[in-house]
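Quick one, tokens below:
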């Protein structure tokens, strides 16, 4: 990924902040929302391919009444983190009812692995959800961050003919590099 591609991603993300958060937050407070939402989208995108495997493992562990599930769920995800929600962020963007979106989003957040819970706690992101929901901005943020215009996954986005539309963010950004292999 070239520097111009990386700059495009950064500008796209901060453009989302300007579009969605402008009347809700002062510009200096955008980071309280846009940074954790970008991290969540990145984690979600990395976990997309292993989602069903994790859900199947969770069901098997629950059936077997296994208490310490963390190592098995990490292994099922193939990452140092996981999410056992039935939802992905792409699923949540389809919620028409604001109250249902908020409840489902909170449930989605609550079943990330403990290490991701620490990140969310450090961001103090849950403090923002009610405000975002009341303003109708939560769904818009999710929709914009899951749009096909941007790739925050660990694989290049491709056209139907196999050509790359968006390269892998890892190739140019040491902050995003190895998010899966290092647990973030």
């Amino acid at each position: 990924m070239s520097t111009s591609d990386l700059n495009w991603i950064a500008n796209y993300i901060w453009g989302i902040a300007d579009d969605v958060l402008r009347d809700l937050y002062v510009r200096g407070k955008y980071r309280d929302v846009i940074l954790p939402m970008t991290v969540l989208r990145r984690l979600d995108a990395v976990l997309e391919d292993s989602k069903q495997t994790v859900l199947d493992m969770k069901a098997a562990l629950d059936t077997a009444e296994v208490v310490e599930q963390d190592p098995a769920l990490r292994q099922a995800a193939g990452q140092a983190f996981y999410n056992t929600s039935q939802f992905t962020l792409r699923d949540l963007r389809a919620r028409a009812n604001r109250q249902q979106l908020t409840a489902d989003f909170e449930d989605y957040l609550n079943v990330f692995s403990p290490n991701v819970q620490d990140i969310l706690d450090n961001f103090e992101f849950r403090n923002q959800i009610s405000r975002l929901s009341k303003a109708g901005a939560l769904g818009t943020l999710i929709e914009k961050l899951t749009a096909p215009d941007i790739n925050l996954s660990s694989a290049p986005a491709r056209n139907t003919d196999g050509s790359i539309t968006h390269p892998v963010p890892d190739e140019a950004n040491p902050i995003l590099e190895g998010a899966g292999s290092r647990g973030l």
